[in-house]
Amino acid sequence: DAKTTQPNSMESNEEEPVHLPCNHSTISGTDYIHWYRQLPSQGPEYVIHGLTSNVNNRMASLAIAEDRKSSTLILHRATLRDAAVYYCILRRNTGFQKLVFGTGTRLLVSP
Amino acid sequence: GAVVSQHPSWVICKSGTSVKIECRSLDFQATTMFWYRQFPKQSLMLMATSNEGSKATYEQGVEKDKFLINHASLTLSTLTVTSAHPEDSSFYICSASLGQATNEKLFFGSGTQLSVL
Predict the structure, then answer these.
(1) CA of A53, closest CA in chain B: separation in Å?
(2) Distances (CA, A) of B117 to A96, B2, B86, B87, B88
(3) Looking at beta carbons, which residues of chain B come within 8 Å of A96?
(4) pLDDT tens digits, residue range B15-33?
(5) Is the confidence at residue A93, as pLDDT, over 70?
(6) Of B43, B45, B103, the CB nearest to A49
């Protein structure tokens, strides 16, 4: 499985933008970059995904490096409800396209 | 959006008993569902891939006789923890996607906290 590397934790203040980095140097051409987040005692929820181009949705933006070896999840204005563990995952076109989770980044948001 | 319902949310059982966890896709059909387990302060670990109408595919190190998976219909997969022991206590989570393409997102259940006494 393609490995991703994320910082263990990050801190932010409320109302400020947050940039969550992810390195995936072994990404292959058909791997999609997925981001999910998990709030305490809940199942993960989908945040965003992309292949090559930057993506925007109501939750966040995803900036993908030109060589695709890294990506950044951008929360434009952090709120207390954004405090969660954020997982960057490569979904590859093998083995039922399963999602294998790494360790993720724990985002702490201060008021 | 698509909803995955997982039941029960929590269960406490005695050692040696079996526990069944249900995972339903409420408004879509899921050919494939995935089962994960998560220990406190750790990431999700994929246990198995559940395929409708066929045997589940288990990840290395996961005992198929211990964790029985049945995917009887396109909207229901069940995980049965047989002869549960305290070390099986964990947070179990199921997920499903609308399709099998790599650009399809996964929808997750809310999880089941299993405590074995």
Answers:
(1) 13
(2) 35, 35, 6, 10, 10
(3) 32, 34, 49, 51, 57, 100
(4) 999 999 999 999 888 888 9
(5) no
(6) B103
Q: How does the average pLDDT of chain B come out, rounded?
A: 92
Choose the closest CB to B57 out of A87, A96, A104: A96
Give the closest residue to B71 by CA, choosing from B33, B106, B27: B33
Instruction: Among B103, B110, B112, B114, pick the best mutation site for testing chain A contact (most A Cβ within 10 A).
Output: B103
Q: Are strands B4-7 and A84-91 parallel, antiparallel or unpaired?
A: unpaired
Distance from CA of B90 to the nearest CA of A (A): 11
What's the number of CA atoms in the CB half-sphere (13 Å) around residue B79? 34
Contact B93 A30 (CB under 8 A): no
Provide the residue type at B115 as one letter: S
A30, A41, A96 member nearest B32 (Cβ): A96
Q: What share of chain B is helix, strand, coil (3-state, %, to 5)?
A: 5, 50, 45
Summarised one tens digit per residue, pLDDT across range B29-80 is 888 899 999 999 999 999 999 888 888 999 999 999 999 999 888 899 999 9
DSSP lists the bridge partners of residue B37 as: B45, B92
Counting every residue written for chain B, the total comes to: 117
Q: What is the mean pLDDT of residues A37-53?
A: 94
φ/ψ of B88, rounded to 5, equals -85, -10
